[in-house]
Specification:
about 150 residues, Arc Repressor Mutant, subunit A, Dna Ligase, domain 1, 2 domains, 6 helices, about 20% strand
Length: about 150
């Protein structure tokens, strides 16, 4: 994790931003929860365990800056709050969202690569990114339902 923190510090300083303790704290929480798709409130709750003096407004401002600098990506899964994950140089993953428990599962691999190529070719349109979400029920929720039957 220290290597990633150093890379992120260097990236911020190269963009003329300070690597403040608050920014470090938010980034550390995200690095410790790579598959969490955490909301700002969840990040705040985890940050204040080690930094009780940090306010939620600081967390929101930090997240906004990190999104603006393309360090983080802001995601909307239709649950009424934004969630965050590290930006990736390639857009090769999608999300499964359980309608019952709200679990988010990442699907690796770009399922739309050939479709993107066709759209680009036929419409002379350069696609930069896309987002694909599947809604349904995870195996845990389906198994719980079977147990009740």
């Amino acid at each position: 994790m220290q290597k990633k923190i150093t890379e992120l510090r260097d990236r911020l300083t190269n963009l003329d931003y300070k690597f403040t303790p608050q920014r470090r704290a938010v980034l550390e929480v995200l690095l410790k929860n790579p598959d969490g798709h955490l909301s700002a409130d969840e990040i705040y709750e985890l940050v204040k365990e080690n930094y009780p003096e940090m306010g939620i407004a600081t967390v929101y401002r930090t997240l906004d800056l990190l999104v603006k600098l393309d360090i983080l990506q802001k995601l909307n899964f239709g649950d009424g709050c934004s969630r965050f994950e590290f930006s990736q140089s390639e857009h090769h993953h999608h999300h499964l969202i359980c309608l019952k428990c709200g679990k988010f599962i990442e699907v690796r691999g770009d399922l739309l690569e050939k479709l993107e190529e066709m759209i680009t070719r036929e419409n002379q349109f350069e696609i930069i990114n896309h987002e694909l979400k599947f809604y349904g029920y995870c195996s845990d929720c389906r198994n719980k339902n079977k147990d009740k039957e």
